[in-house]
Each structure stands twice: as structure tokens, then as C-alpha cells.
Amino acid sequence: MRGLVALFLVLAAAPVAAQTVVVSEEPEAVSLTVYRGEKYGGQAIDPNWPTGYALVTETRTLTIPVGESVIRFEGVAEGMFPESAIVTGLPKGVKEKNRDARLLSPLGLVDAYLKRQVIITRTERATGKTREFPAMITSAPGGAVILQTSDGYEALHCTGLPERMAFAQIPEKLSAKPTLSVITQSDKPVTAKVTLTYMAAGFDWEANYIAQVQNRGSDGKGKVDLFAWLTLANGGNQSFTNANTMAIAGKPNRENNGPQVKPTGGSLELKCWPNQRTHEVPYSLGYFPAPPPPPPAPAAYMDEESDSIVVTAQRMRGEYLASYSPVAVVVAEQENLGDLKLYRIPEPVTVNAKGQKQVAMLVKPGAAFTHHYSASVENYGAQSEPMTLMLRGKNTTDKGLGLPMPQGQVMVFENSEYGPLLTGETTLKDRAVGEDVEIAVGTSVDVRMKVTPQSEKADNQRWEIKVTNARNTPVNIEVEIPYELRGKSKAVTKISGVPTWKTTVAGNDSATLSYDIKLERD
Description:
The chain is mainly beta. Helix content is 4%, strand content 49%. The chain is built from three helices and 31 strands. The strands form four sheets. The chain has a 20-stranded mixed sheet that branches. Strands 10-9-8-7-11 form a five-stranded antiparallel sheet, with no helix packed on it. It is elongated. The protein starts with a helix and ends with a strand. The relative contact order is 0.13.
């Protein structure tokens, strides 16, 4: 019995092995695969917090000691989904993992010191003397930090005197960077190459198209130089340097686990209501909008012939701008990934924190497109209204395209004596190889349409469409009639299952079509 007691005492007195903290070095290699967020109505990327996500893979070399260790992966994406993190390359795997979401920052310190004491140092303007006194942070609503002192309650930086706030120490578990920590075990010292893979919110990408229309023929046929940027967005505070970067087009089957909580942190934005009258408050305080800035001064250049300074808003014009086209140095390479499409940037790039990166995604000069004016009778009445100019092409190789075209914003330019001018902005939906590509350029006051009722019987209504063309050249038109028609007309054909009137209207002329709609009576 005494032996058992002695053995118990020895075991109880044995010290528990302490955990060794290992802070990982900067990643040696980074891979970033970005998935698109939902774009309702074709809106652009949200610059504050993008709605997509990314798969991040980092490789780091670590020296792991004997025993149990805590490995801290600092600088991970702040939108990390910790449940998705996978760590490989450790001698005995991972026993436990934790995400440190509280960041070291002015806002993070105030939040961590809520209901705790701090030291306020205040300088008297008249004497220049400073004095220190304790204060307690009682609350920190947006725009103010409320302190409790021996004199009562006051707001930080609202006394009119220079002051600063000091903290006794950095609170525990307040990290300078978003951090993932894991606990592991090793029987011997080892240097291991560890791979960390995880999903993270706060990323997005989109395609941005530039369509420059070349001169078109009287038959509506022409060429379009089509160029597209691949725009990547990183909404977090962590940069990814020299990352092997890819973008995925399509919608993977992924369940929504709700909004990801962003780590606490950031700067303090303190505001005090001023004592002056409103006209005495400086605009720099941010309470009243500043007057609009003056327009920028026009650029100046030296006239080569007269050696005089000439002020102009734009010197570049004529043939120089008429030949404008983006020049692609690096073009993303398209690959298949199951039913999805993958766009790989062929060389490592840096995706900066709170920034965007653009590389060329599609370069297709001289693609074949036709021009026509489009409308639907549902949207027109007895008043003459403009029709919409459309560009239509076929996404095939023989027509100059033949590549998957992801959804994105389109800017359409046409040539003029002053160079390319913006004529329209629209949204392009996802277009697979072999599908029609249609781009709405904008409405035209020269080509107009009206729809008027003619007669009505028990089982049908007769309507008339009239299109007028004020241009000097003929135009092709397509008018959708999304109803069940009575009788057949050679002028009406079906496009994508919708009866459509297709014809050519001569210059400075008009064209009409009468049609009957079947009525169903109860």
C-alpha cells in the first residue's frame, strides 16, 4: 500500500509537458482558386465584401519539436471557413484546431478592454503639462468611446484637449493577423513541409467585355473586336503574393452555411458633435458635405509647329484612337473542370488586400456579328418609341469565337472621327460554345415602332405594327409577337419558339405588318 501511495505521489508530482508554440513562416507557395458569387441583375462586384469565395492552398516549411506543439498559421484569409481547413504533412496529424478571430487593432483593443481600466494622458494647451489618470471603458458604440473617470462620464477625444489612451498589456488571444492554430504531436524533432488548404469568403471574379464595332455593311453584317478582362477581387486585409491563380465559371453544388462572421478589428472612427453653429463647422469633421471639387484643369501640350502651349481636353483623336484596341500580354488559359470551366492565369500574380487584379481572358479580333433592331409588341403602344440596336454573333470558331463566355458586363464602342465612342453598356449572360451571343447596344431614335389595335371579333383581335427608319441606309428588324397567332404569314417565323417578324426597312422608309391574335372566350 505504501508503494502504491509513493508511486501515486511521484506521478502526481511529475510536471505536465508544456506545449511549444511554433509560428509558421510566410508561405513558400500559394494557390488561389476563385469562385463567382451570385450576381442578381448582373450587378458588379461588391467592393466592400465580395460575395464569392476561394479555395486557398499554402505550403509552409516548419521545424516541429518533440512533444506536443501548437502551430500558428498566421496571415490566413480573414473570411476563412475554419471547418473547411485541412492540414497535411504533420508527423502525426492534427489533434485540435482553432481559429483566432480577434484581431489586434484600435477597434479590437477597445473591444477587448470593455469594462477594464486604461490610462488617459491629457495635455493642457495653456501650460503644455501632461497628466495621467485612470479611466474605464464603459461602452464603445459606433463613432464614440465612452469613458468613466473620477469626474464622471465623457467621450474619448471630445474634450478639445490632446489626449491618448494607453493599455496595460495586449490581451490574450488578440492576434495581429487572422490565425489558424492547430495542435500536433511528434516523437522527434522534424522539419516538415506542411500544406494548409481551406475555403474563404470575401473573394469574387467577373468578366468585363469590350466590344469595338468595326464598319458595318448595308446588309447589317460586320466585324467586332471582342476583348474580355478577368477581374479578380480580394475583399480581405491579406495579400496573396505570387499566387498560382485560377477562376472557376459555373455553379458548383455547394450548400449555403449562412454568412461568415468576419474577424473583429479595424480603426476607430471617433466623432464629437461640435459646439459651433453649422456654418462654423469645418467640412473636415464630416458632419456636412463638402462643396464639390472644381473640375480638373485640361491637359496641356507643346504644339510642335508653333512652340506654344496649347490647352486641350483630349489631343488623341482621328486615326490613332480609331485603331484603339487593348493589348494582351498575359491571357488566361481556359480548361475543362468537369461541367465547369477553369481559367488559369499562366504565371504567378499578386492579388493585393482590398484590391482587384485584371488579366486578359478573351482576345477575339474580327468576330462576325450582324446588326438588327429588336423589340417586342408587349412593350409598345400607339406612341412611336425607339427600338433597340442589337449585335448578334454565333459562338463558333468559324465565326471568330468558339470559347465559353462567362456572364459579365459589356461596354460597346463604335468608331467615329474622334476615335471610339461609348455607345452602350449591357450584361452578357453565360454563353456556351455553339450558342448565339446577343449584345444590346442601346435604343435608336432613328428606328421607331408603334403598335395599334385595328379590330376585334369574338375570337380574335387584329393589330398593326409600323416601323419607321429615319436613317439613310436600310436596317434589319426583328419584332417578337409572343402570342398565339391566327393564320400564317411568310413574314413571321419562330425564333427560340417565339413568333417573330423579320424584315428589312429601306432608308427613310417604313414597313407595316398586320396580325391576328387568337382569343379564348369563357
